[in-house]
Queue: 4 jobs
Job 1
Amino acid sequence: GRTEVVEEDLIKAMELALPHRLKSKPFEQASKQAVHQVVQEVRSHQSGDAKNRNDGSKSKGNPHANSVGDAEVNFKADLNVEAQVASQRLKEAATASRGSRAARVTVVGYPHGYPISYVPPIKGLVSDVDLNATITLASMKGGGRIEIEDEDIRVRVRRARAPRLIVLVLDSSGSMAALRRISLAKGLAWKLVEDSYVKRDMVSLIVFRGSRAEVVVKPTRRYNDLLEALDKTPTGGRTPLSSALSTLLTLAREAKMKSRWLTVKGILISDGKANVPLGYSDIESEVIALAQALKREGVDLEIYDTRPRVAIDPSPSYVDDIARITGAKVWKM
C-alpha cells in the first residue's frame, strides 16, 4: 500500500465524515456536491485566490437542491399560503406544550429522570435502589457492623419525562386528492415528524383508504422510515374512518402494555368524511363509540381538519363529533 496521503484520500474521508454536519434540517441528505464545495472553499482559502473562490461559489449553486428536506416543499407547492398557516399553527401548538409539566410523571423503579424521594420496594420489586437511604436506615439499627436486611432497602422515586408515542393517522382517501390536500397533509406530517425527532418521541404511521386502515410504520425512532412511507403512500378510494380510530385504539393499547409509563398522542389528519363502516352498524354510532374508547384509554388526540372552506358542503363530517367527545384540539387547514 501507499505510505503517503494524497488529496483524493482526504476528499474520500470528508465524504464519509462531513455529510451529517452539512445538513440544515434533521432529515436532509448532504450530497457529494456539498462536500466538494467545502473542498473547493478550502483550496481557495489556502491559495488566497479570490477569483477562484468566487467562481467556485457561482458554479456550485444550492448544495441542498435535491435534498429530502426540499421534498417537503414540493408536497405543498400548490397550496403555499395554506401550508404557511398550518406551519404557524403547528409552531404555536409546539410552543404551548414545550416545558409542560403534563409531560412528566412520578415513577418508582424506572431508572430515568431525577430522584425526589425514596420508598420501600412496591410489591417486592427491587429496582433502582437508593444506596444512601438504604445504608442510612441499616446503620440506624446500632451495632458496630452494618448489615442490610430486606426491610432496609429503599428504591428511588423519580420525576421523569414520560416516554411518548406520536401516531400519525393520515387520511389518504380519494376526497383528499381534491385541491391536492394530500400534499398539504404530507407536508404537515413531515413537520410533525421533525418535531418528534427533536423531542426524541417514538412515531408511528396509520394510513386509511379504501376498505380499511393499516399500520404502515410500527412504533419506532427510525424517523426516515416514516418519511419514506409517507412519500410512497398512494391516494384514492373510500374513507374508512371507523377502521382508522379502531386501529389507533388497538395500537395504543398494545404500546401501553409494553411500557407502563408511555403516553400516546394521536394526530388525525382528515376531512372526517367517513363512508365505510366497520361492521353492520351505522358509521356515526361507530365513530362515537370509538371516540369514547380513545378517551377512556387516555389517548391524547389532535385533529387537523382538511375540509375545504366552502359555504355549502353536503357530505357529513365527523371531525366535530370526535373533537367534542375526546376534547381534541382542532386545527383548520
Job 2
Amino acid sequence: MALPQHLRISQSENGDYWPGFVDALATLLLVIIFLLAVFTAGQFALSQALTGRDEQLAELNARLSTLAEELNLARSENERLTLRVGQLTQENQALEERNLALSSELEQVSARLAAVSEDLAEEEALSEEAQATIALLNNQMAALRQELARLNEALEASEAREAELESQIVNLGERLNAALASQVARLAQYRSEFFGRLIEILGNRTGVRVVGDRFVFETDVLFPSGSAELSQAGRQSLQPIADAIIQLTTEIPDDIEWVIRVDGHTDVVPLGPNAPFDSNWELSTARALSVVEAFIDMGVPPARLMAAGFGEYHPIAEGRDPASLARNRRIELKLTDR
C-alpha cells in the first residue's frame, strides 16, 4: 500500500534510523553478555578461591587444635616434671639431713666405743677385785636365802595363827550374836511383862492406849493447852508408871542395856504469837523433858530415861478434826535397848 504523501516526505527528510538503533541494541546486548560472562567467570574464580581458602582454614584450625592439645600435654608434663623435681629436691635434702645425722651418730658411737674400750681396760685391771666382790656377794646371797627360808617358815606359822584367830573370831561373833539375841529376847520378855503390868495399872483409863510396843498418853491428860508444865492430874497419872519403872530396874539384870524413851508429839496447829515456844517441835521436846524430870523426881534412875521431841511430823491420825488433833497430841513411852 502506498504511503500518504506527507509521510513519505517526512521519512525522506529524517532519514532511515532503525538499522542504527538495531545495531546499537545488538552492541549493547553483546556488551551485557560479555559483562555477564566476565562476572560469571569472576564469580567462579572467586568461589574456587574461597573454597580453597576454607579448606586451608579448616586445615589450619585442625592443626591449631592439634598444637593446643600438644601444648596442654606439654604443660601437664612440665608440671609433673616440676613436681617430681620438687619431690626429688626434698628427698635429696632429707637424705643429706639423714647423712648428717648418721655422721653425728657415728661420731657418738665412736666416742662411746672409745669410752667402752677405756672402761674395759679399767675393768680388766680391776678383775681380781671384782672377783673378790662377786664371791662376797655370793656369800651374802646365800645368807639372804637362808634368812628368806626362815621368814617363810615364820610367815607360814603366822598364817596358821591368823587362821586360828579368824576361827576364834568367827566363834566369838557367833557367841556374841547368840548373846545379843538372848538379851533381845530377854528384853522383849521384860518389855512384855512391863507393858502387861502397866496395862493392869492403868486399866481402861481415858486418854491412855497401847499402840504396838508403845504406851500412848494424850497430852490433854497431862498438860494444859500450849504448855509444857505438867498438871497435878498429869503427875498423878505418871506416878503408877514411875513405880512400875522403878520395880522394873530391880528385875532386869544389869547386863541388859535398856531405857524408857519418852517421845513428845504435837498436832499441826501452829502456836499463837504469845506462846512461850517458837515451834511445835520445841513444845514437844519440852513436854518430853517435863515427863522425864517428873519420873526422876519420883525416883526413876536418870540413866534409864531418854527424851525426844518430834513436833507435828509423826502423826498417828490423819485429818484436822478435833478428835484427830487430840490423838496426835501425845506422849509415848517405849522400853528399848540403849
Job 3
Amino acid sequence: MPLVTISSLKVYLSYSVFVAAAVLGGLLWVVHEQQGNFDLPAVMLIGVAFWTIGWMVQFTVYSFFRFVLGAPIDSITVGLLGIETRPRYWDARTALGVSVTSLVSLVLVGALIVLAEQFVNGTQPWGQMLTIWHAPGFGLGAADTIWLGGAWLCWVQAVCQLYPLPRSIGRVTLISAVSILTQRMGESFQVHFSTRSLQMIAILTGMIAVAAIARLQFGFAPQWAFLTLLAVLLWGSAKAGDVRDFVLGFDTSREWQQDDFDLEFPRHARIARGEGLLYRVASIGRRRRLRKVLQSERQEASDASRLDGVLNQLHSSGRDSLSAADLALLDRVSKSLRRQRESESAERSQSDDARSGDA
C-alpha cells in the first residue's frame, strides 16, 4: 500500500503488517480479560513500539544510502520484519553494504539500549539478558526489565531478517556476497551457487529441528515444528525466480546512472492499478528478453577480448593449434560479421531505392 513519498523515494507498507495487526488485535480481544492477562495490552503496545524502532533503524539505513551515498533505491517497502528486499538494478557491493549495515545497526541499537539501562540505573544488566529471554513477554510487563526486553526485540528482528527467506535482508546479503566472490564465474554459476547455498541453510535448519526433537522440547509452540516450517519454506523458495533476478540486477562493472534507478512499483501497487496477472505475464517476457540481451552483450565482450590472441595464434601456429573453444570463437565472429555485412547491404539497398523513388 502506498504510504508516502519523500523526495522521490516512494515508501510502501506491506499488507503483511495489516494481517499481523489483525491477528494481534484478535488475540488481545480473546485473552485480555482472562485471569492474569490484564497487563497484556500494555505489554503488547510496548513490544510493538520497540519493534517499530527496529523498522525505523532499517529505514534510516536505507534512506542514508539513498540520499547521502546516492544508492539507486527508488522505493522502500516496510513489511512485518522491517524493510522488504526485492531485485533491483544496483551494484552488488552496495546491496551488501546496505544489508550488512541494516543488520549491524539493529544489533548495535539493542546493545545501546542495554548500555543506557546500565548507565541510567547503575546496574549490570548483561547478566540478566538470558533470564529476560526466558521471561514471559520478554520482561516487557515489568518496569525494571522493559528496556532489556526491547533490546531483545531488536536482536530478534535482526535474526529474523538475517534468515534468507524471500524479501528478507539476509537473502540479498547472501546473493550479493556470492555475486561479489564469484563475479568472474558468470551469472549461471552465481545463480546455481546461490540456490545451493540457500538449500544448504535449509538442510542445516532441518538438522537443528531434528536435534530439537531429540531433546524432546515440546510445548505449546515446539521449537522443532517452527524450525521445520522454516526449513521447508526456505527449501521451496531456493529455486524461486528472485534469485536469478537478484543476480541479473547486480552489475559491478559500471557506474550508477539516473536510468539505473529502479522505477518499478511493488507488486501490491501494481495490483492496485489493475496490473496484476497481465503485468506479471508481460514481466516474464521482458525479463527473458533482458537476460538474452545481457548474455549476448557479455558474450560479444568476452569474444572481443579473446579475439586478438586467437588470431595471433592462428597466424603463428596455424589452424591445427587452435582449441575447440577458439574455433567456436572464430565461427561466432565470422557469423556476426556476415550478419553485419548483410544488414549494411540491406540498408544501402533501401537507401538506393529511396533515392531512385525520389528521382
Job 4
Amino acid sequence: MFSIARRNAPCFVFVDEIDAIAGRHARKDPREGQLLRLLLHSLMGTFGEGKNRVSLRQAIIFICATNRPDELDLEFVRPGRIDRRLYIGLPDAKQRIQIFGVHSSRKQLAEDVNFEELVFRTVGFSGADIRNLVNEAAILSVRKGHSKIFQRDIIDVLDKQGMGVLLTEEEQQKCEQRVSLEKRRLLAVHEAGHVVLAHLFPRFDWHAFSQLLPGARKLQYLYSILEKIWSTKVIQHLVT
C-alpha cells in the first residue's frame, strides 16, 4: 500500500477501522503483531531516503478512522506517526434531518412523513443508524402492503428498536388474559402517573407506551422529549 503511495505521491492514504490492525490487542497475537510492526515501520519510512518530509510534491498524507481511539496502540498514536487527531461527533438535529433526506431520496415517501418530528426521537443516532431506520421502515411498509413509507412505519420501527418487540392487538389481548386484573390495575395506575407528570411539567413532552408480554411480563417505554413535537399524549389503557 505504501509503496504504491510513494509512486503516486503526492497522495492520501485512508484506512477505516484502524483499530482492527493497530489496536492494543494486536501485540498479543503473532500474526496481528507482525502486521502492526509492518505498519509502524511503513509510517516511519514512508518518505524513503533523500526525500523531504515537508515537501508538498512528495507528501503522503496518512488518514485513519476509528470508533475506539482509546484502544489504539500507544506506539502507533505517538507524534511522528499520528501527528493530529480530529474528533467527529454524532450528528446534531439539523444534520440528522439532512441525513434522513439523503437516505430516503430514492424511496417512495408518503405525504405525512415529517423528519423534523423524528429529530428528538433519534438523539444519539449516527448516520448508519438513520440509514438502518429508513431501510427497516421500507421493509415494514412492504409487509403492511403499502406502496409508500408512512410516518407510522418509521415510528413503529423506532418503537421496535427501543423496546425490542411489538405485539399486535390480538396478541396483546391474549397476553392480557393471562394476567390478573389486579396486576393490570397496578400497571394502569403506574402509567397514569406518566400523564400526571406530563401535566405538572409542561416543558416536557411525554410519549408513554405500555403493553403486556407473554409470561405475565410487562414492558414499559417512555420518551421524555425536551421540545414539544407531539400534540397528544398516548397511553394504552390496560383496564377495560
